[in-house]
Every structure is written in C-alpha cells, then in structure tokens.
Amino acid sequence: MNLTLKIWRQAGPRHPGEMVTYKVQDISEDMSFLEMLDVLNEQLNAKGEEPIAFDSDCREGICGMCGLMISGEAHGPEKTTTCQLHMRSFSDGEVITVEPWRANAFPVIKDLVVDRGAFDRIIQAGGYISANTGSAPDAHAVPVPKPNADRAFVAAECIGCGACVAACPNASAMLFMGAKVTHLSELPQGQPERAARVVSMVDQHDHEGFGGCTNVGACSQACPKGIPQDVISTLNKDLRAALRG
Amino acid sequence: MTDTTVNAGIAHGLYTEGEPVADTKAPAGPIAGKWTQRKFDAALVNPANRRKLDVIIVGTGLAGGSAAATLGEAGYNVKVFCFQDSPRRAHSIAAQGGINAAKNYKEDGDSTYRLFYDTVKGGDYRSRETNVYRLAEVSANIIDQCVAQGVPFAREYGGLLDNRSFGGVQVSRTFYARGQTGQQLLIGAYQALERQVAAKTVKQYTRHEMLELVVADGRARGIIVRDLVTGEIETHFADAVVLASGGYGNVFFLSTNAMGSNVTASWRAHRKGAYMANPCYTQIHPTCIPVSGEHQSKLTLMSESLRNDGRIWVPKNRDDCDKDPRQIPEEDRDYYLERIYPSFGNLVPRDIASRQAKNVCDEGRGVGPVVGDFRRGVYLDFADAIARLGKDAVEAKYGNLFDMYARITGENPYEVPMRIYPAVHYVMGGLWVDYDLQSTIPGLFVTGEANFSDHGANRLGASALMQGLADGYFVLPNTIRDYLAKGPFEALADDHPAVAEARGRVEQRTARLLQIQGERSVDSFHRELGNIMWEYCGMERSEEGLLKAIDLIRGLREEFWRNVRVLGSGDTLNQSLEKAGRVADFLELGELMCIDALHRRESCGGHFRAESQTEDGEALRHDDEFLYVAAWEFSGGDGDGEMSTPVLHKEDLVYEAIELKQRSYK
To answer: How far, in Å, CA of B219 to CA of B527, rounded?
Structure first.
C-alpha cells in the first residue's frame, strides 16, 4: 500500500516543531507501524536527510517504551501498543498524522521522543512497598485472597507508556497512578504505607504538572493493557481516607 | 562420527592457547556448605563506611535493578545507568513463563539438590557446579522477597501461591504471574530501586549508555558514558563497577531481544581485559512467530507451553507447501517430532525442536512466505486439541497467545494452524566470572545474562529470571563487600592517563562514526551480519561454514568503518549514532563467536556441530576433550574494528556432586 505521512519534526527541546509530509510506497500489511517508520527512515538516510527519532525497545507490547499519537489516537486505531499495531489496520492511500505524546509533564526531546521521567518520580514518591532484601518472611506466611490477588494483578499490568496522559483532555496521570495505588492497596503487604503512599504520590503528580481528572474515561479507552477506570475510584477512596486521618 | 582433524582454529592461526584458569575461588568443602562458608569469609564493611564507597551498576533489568536496590538499602553510594528512558523498560520485562524456586510447596519431591541437578543436566554438563548449586540454594529466598515487595504471583483459592511445571522437569516449581512474570518481577525490582532513589542512596541515569570502562592501576574504577539526550560524554568514578547489561542475541539482528539490547558494555570490558566465556552458546527458541518479510525488525516468542497441546507438522510433499493446510489430508502430513522422538514427541527440549524445524525447512518442506531461499515455518496445529477439549477450553488456556499471534500475523489460529519457526532468544555465554561474580579485571563484577556461569550450553525454562534475581538480590551484595572492604581507593583525577585514554577513545570513535559519511545505513550492516551469523553460527555449525563466516565478517567490518552512513550530529539525540556504536561491537563479537564455535569440535546443548553427531543425527558431546569453559582473552588491536588473535584460557569443569551422562530423548 502507499501512504502519506504527516509527521512531527522537532530538532530539540527548545526548537520549534512542525508537521512534515512524507510518502511511503509498497508498504506490506504485515509490517508493524514502527517497521513502516523504519522503512521511511532508511529512505531518508539514503537521501541524506536525518532519520525521524522515535522510541521503541521490546517491540512486543510490554516494555512501554513506544507510544505515538496516530491520527489523533494514542497508539492508533487498535487497542494495543504502537509496536503491535500493524499496517493492515490502515488502507491504501490513507493520510496518517504522527505526533508525540502531548502533555506539559512530558516535554518533547526530539521529533517523536518525549521525556516521561515524571512517571519515575511519581513512583519514587511512594509507589513501592518498603521491604529490604533479606527481611522477607516465608512467601506463604500471609495468604492473599484470590480476588484481591487478581485485582492487584490487573492493576499491575500497567506498562507506564503514558497513553492515558496523552489521551486525557487534561493530561492527567490518574490512571497510571491509580493503577499503582490499587495494585499495592489490594495486597496485605501494601497496608502499612497505604495512607502515606497515596498522599505523597498525588502531591508529586500535581507538582509535575499533570492535570486534574474529570472522569471522562478516555484514559482507560486508550490504555493498551485495558487498565479499568475503577482504579481511579480506589485511589480517590484511599486519598479521602488518608486525608481524614 | 567423531572429528579427529587437527583443530581448525589453531591450524588457521585464528587463536592461540594460554594458561588455564587457575582458580574459580569457590571455598573448599562439601557443595552444600560452600555458600555459607563464602558469606562468612567475605569481609564486612562497617555501616558507617558504606556511604564512602561508590558502586556503579550498568543495566536496570532483574540483575542490575535488584543489585542497585539492595546495595542502596545496605547504605553504599550507588549510581545506576540504563540506555532506556526508565529503569522499568529493561528487557527482563518481556519474559513470560515463570521463575523456578526449590520451595517444594507441592511436596512433590523437589529440593535444592534436584533444582541444581536439573539445571546442570539441562545445561548439558557445561556449567560450573558450584555456582549452579548456589543458584538453587538462594532460589527460595527470591520468592519470599518478591512477595514481600508486592509481586502479584498467581494464587490458588486458599490464598497460597500456585505453581506449574515447566521446561521438561518432573516437579512443579515454577512460580508465575500469568504470561507476564518477567514484567511483574521487574516492576518489583524497579519499585525497590525507585525507593532507594528517593532515599538518595542511589542516583539513576536514564538515557545514558556506557561506552568505555576505566581501568586504572589494575582495577575497574569507572565508566565513560554518553548522555543520549545531550550527547555529552561523561566520566563516572567508583570503587567497583557491576555490569548487568544483558545478553548479546542481537548480534543475529533478528532475535526476541529488545531493539536496544547490545553487547557494548561487555565488549568494551572485554577489550580492557575481561575474558569472554563460551560466546558461541546461544539458545534458539522453537516457538516464535516466523519472519514475514524483508522489513522484519524483531521476532516475537510465544510461550513454549503451546507445545503441550499443539501438534507440529509439515507437508510430506514439497508441492503441498503453498496449499491451504486444512486441505492437506492426514496421510500427507509429517508430524516429524512425533515420528523421530516417539516418547517425548512435541515436548523434546528447545534445542532439539529447533534443529529439526530447520532440517525440514532445509529439505524444502517449510510453510508460509518464502524468505530468502526457502519457506521458513512449520505448522503448530490445535485442530486436535480443539476437537478433544473444545474451543473454550483451548481459549481459556492459550487465549492471550492466540490473540498475540492473530495480531501479528493477521491469521486466526483457531481456524488455521499457527506457523512457527525458531529464533534466537538468549545467550548462555558472557563475561567470565569467578565464584564471587568477579571478572578477570579486579573490581569489575558481572551479573545476570551478561555473565556465563549458570546455564552451561543450554538454559532451562524459567531459569533466567531466577538467575538475574539471585545474582542481584543475594549473591553479588554478599561477594562485592569482600572487595569493597579494601576501599575506598584513591580518587582518580580527570587527567589520569587511564581516564584520559578511555575518554579520548570514546570521543574519537564518536567523531569517526559521524565523519565516515559512506553509502550504507547502519541497519544494512547489522542485517547482513545477522544473516551471516544465522546461516553459519546458528542452529547448526560446521568447520567449513564457520571459516567462511569469519572471512565474511572481517570483510563486512572493514567495509563498515569505511562505508557506514551516520547522519546528524553528536551533540543531540542521535539514534543512528547509538546503533552504529552497537553494531561496530557486534561486528567484533561475531568473529569471536565463530572462533569459539569452530574450536569446540563437539555438540553440546544449543551448540550443534555437524561433525559431531550420533548415527541418529543427535548431538554428541566429547567430555574427554571439551569438558571445560572456553574463556577468551582479547589480545590487542588498538584501532576501531581491529582485533588480533584471541587467546584461549581453559577452565576445567569439575563435577563432584553430579555424575556426567549423555542426554537422550528418544
């Protein structure tokens, strides 16, 4: 298939960016979206133009490194990561726009690459259970009811890609944060730090410049791992309880 | 057939032999007491002194992330580096199946000794006994630690942990978190690491890549890194350096590794004096989604659990290979694994299943698209399982894998048989380490897939996660203190000759890559190297093929340094430049892998030499000649891409707790 691509090019964090139009020919429908960009980059390199910078690593949908806004949708038209999106989801002659995640808390580094360091800092603020190596009791010392373990797992599937932020009209990271809070709150091991954790993480979230949540649910719709929106309810409940003391 | 010719490598002047490795530094005494003894003998560092000791860790996967967190908790001053944008991206995250531990929660006869035994046997008796025993010994602690951190392992209705059996062993010792065990374990280690970042015991450097090791006065004292965002070259000093930088499967271009996985940290250390051990030992996993065309950038693995219910076959007749498989009648199908291995059938070990798939495709009986000369795929058919169990039951067991397959191939595996083909997945080889996980450079430690010691010539399923976390949480923190107790070492000045040399080398190399401005892209070189490696140093190796590969690689490397085209500049994010540096190192590693494969004139585990097989075409070991670790020393070559003849040092493998046997799966 032949496609027209309108891609965001930006030389660096302090440079202005612009959409640039490229054509690609003979694209196989078995290619992934990123392999299609690889083909374009090889063409650019051959012509002496600098290739387009974009992030990817595992290319099997689990590391969370890739993430593009494709024709206005985070990770494109399918419910998956950009690396697992294949060209058969597009049609011959289509015009596709490709942009980086847009959020104040995710500044553009170059072209389609953004800085998601804010996510690490939210985890540093409390997204963990304090258990020094060597201090753990036997794994069977505390049974975990299966429904809690299962819900913890569903929340823990978050890959930290940032699609929720990109999809949110307010660029809020509540789904990302709610997933971590829910994962740890469902487990007995997470109880001692439950109140302090949520307060500290929410503070960091606001400090990073993410927006507020208005419960529109675009985050959960865009999430390639299908993290349910109710993790945000759990976060709000934990926060309310913590602030009441 | 036994090959009795003079060793081709020596005959062709490809390597020389040096002194054997004298000592692996494991304590004396019975195997079950060695680790306790070593922990006791290792010097202690007073808590007040720990913050004066600097440790650098390169890589944030299971081995690096866990070590950084643990050393931070202990109070050392840690710096941790990764090339990704966050420590959580490291490729440990992609491991699916599970993690082994000798907990014996099922009361099915498991024990530390049995896990040790299975691992040594699975490695085809080419791993180091003392290290493997310790791995089995600490395995149970890993599960305790991960549960305490909140890793959501699968549980039974009573709230206790579930287990499954895995990888051809007869006990249920594998702990898992659906098909995302690696992800959950890595997030556990990552969160422990971020906690230490918040506590300021660890400083993390993301989007930084190690490009040189600083060795001063015989000790590893720091690293040179490039800030991948600004392009700045930075020097970081430490009292000890830990490489936890993963495996080098991407030397094959196509593999199940992440796009960024590379050998540069290890190779730079090798060039500075760290021996590289058994580099030719590569694991090729049988159940991967086949290559679909020339554009392919990586391969995706599907859990080998699929072989429990899927039947593998190809058409008996070449003429049927492009037909709809559903139209091929039963009598025209060749269920070749069931035919050749009636007792193990589709469940033979990974190395055997992979090699037989290659054989039938080489005969022209492969299926799927033609890539290169042949169709490279075999059917994995669930029609019988669906008829026997019902579609719902198959979906409940394998639904996520079927979905992944459908997404990548566009085919519905409930209707049409899946197509699979082997792909490079893991490397057992790596930097040589002693019992303390210390390399041949004092102060340089190596953990996880980057080292060589635990898996011999073939790794068992669910053992990579175990080794990464064993090294990082429990082994390294206990052994590195013995070294750190000698520090802190005298501070190095920026103009110390060793520092200036390392830094200058990085600056020159970066500048040179940008100056060449040749005709060919980095990827085109990488692809060509990958084709050479796959063809001649892949599932089957021969003297003739390996000699040819070495010639081809040398030619390609020479062309690379004259004709590669890297656009853009060095003072900004430049992904072509990053890749160019990695491919330059792969072009050197590939040659050493071929030399290692050439010198080992036996078949063992994942290393199959055409000249060393039984009458039935099975792998034939030669314990009389090759019961050793091949540790290679870099012998010089100053310029970029220059390598002189490597020196082989043998470490004899001593089996005192286990009897040597030949594997059989008929």
So the answer is: 37
Gap between the Cα atoms of B78 and B70, Å rounded: 10
pLDDT tens, B205-248?
999 999 999 999 999 999 999 999 999 999 999 999 999 999 99
The full set of domain ranges for chain B reads 284-425, 500-628
Q: How far is A216 from chain B (nearest CA, A)?
A: 28
CATH fold, domain B500-628, is: Methane Monooxygenase Hydroxylase; Chain G, domain 1 (1.20.58)
Identity of residue B517? Q
- Name the residue among A48, A133, A153 with its Cβ closest to that of B567: A48
Average pLDDT over residues A218-233: 98
Burial B28-50 (b: 16+ CB within 10 A, else e): eeebeebbeebeeebeebeeeeb
Strand-by-strand arrangement of the B418-427 sheet = B282-288, B418-427, B378-381, B311-315, B333-334
The interface pTM score, or ipTM, of the predicted complex is 0.98
- Residue A130 exposed, middle or buried by CB count within 10 Å (0-12, 13-18, 19+): middle
The CATH number, out of the four listed (3.30.70.1450, 2.30.30.100, 1.10.3720.10, 3.10.20.30), of the domain defined by the range A3-109: 3.10.20.30
Q: What is the C-alpha to C-alpha distance for residues B595 and B362, in angstroms, rounded to an integer?
A: 25
Task: State yes or no: pLDDT of B565 exceeds 90.
Answer: yes
Domain with CATH 3.10.20.30 in chain A: 3-109
Q: CB-based burial of residue B347 (10 Å sphere; 0-12 exposed, 13-18 middle, 19+ buried)? A: middle
The pLDDT of residue B666: 72
- Terminal Cα distance for chain B, rounded: 19
Q: For residue B631, what is the enclosing H or E element?
A: strand B628-633
- The pLDDT score that the predictor gives to residue A80 is 96
Pick the CATH number of B284-425 from 3.90.700.10, 2.40.50.140, 3.40.50.1000, 3.90.280.10: 3.90.700.10
Report d(CA B322, CA B365) in Å as an integer: 10
Residue B329: CB atoms within 10 A of its CB come to 7
What are the φ and ψ backbone dihedral angles of B113, each rounded to 5 degrees? -65, -40
Tell me which amino acid residue B656 is. E
Please give the average per-residue pLDDT across B42-48, as a whole number: 97
Partner residues linked to B650 by β-bridges: B630
Chain A's closest residue to B295, CA to CA, is A35
Q: How far is B206 from chain A (nearest CA, A)?
A: 9
Helices B181-198, B129-149: inter-axial angle, 10-degree rounding: 70
Q: How far apart are CA B649 and CA B29, in angstroms?
A: 26
Partners of residue B143 in chain A, C-beta under 8 Å? 139
pLDDT in tens, A170-179: 999 999 999 9
Identical fold at B284-425 and B500-628?
A: no
Continuous segment of H or E residues that includes residue B234: strand B233-237
Q: What pairs with residue B613 in β-bridges?
A: B619
Can you say how many angstroms the Cα of residue B91 is from the centroid of all Cα atoms in its chain? 11
Three-state secondary-structure class, residue B302: coil
In this prediction, residue B1 has a pLDDT band, given cuts at 50, 70 and 90, of very low
CATH numeric code, A117-244: 1.10.1060.10
Extract the tokens encoding B551.
């010639």
CB contact under 8 A, B105 and A140: yes
| pLDDT tens profile A98-108 | 999 999 999 99
Strand partners, B77: B54
Q: In B101-175, where does DSSP find H-type helix?
A: 112-122, 129-149
Question: Please, which residues 132-161 of chain B have a Cβ atom closer than 8 Å to chain A?
Answer: 141, 143-150, 152-161
Interface contact A30-B292, CB threshold 8 A = yes
Here the tokens at position B385 are: 């399982």
For B600-641, where are the alpha helices, taking DSSP H only? 623-626
Q: Where in chain A is the domain with CATH 1.10.1060.10?
A: 117-244
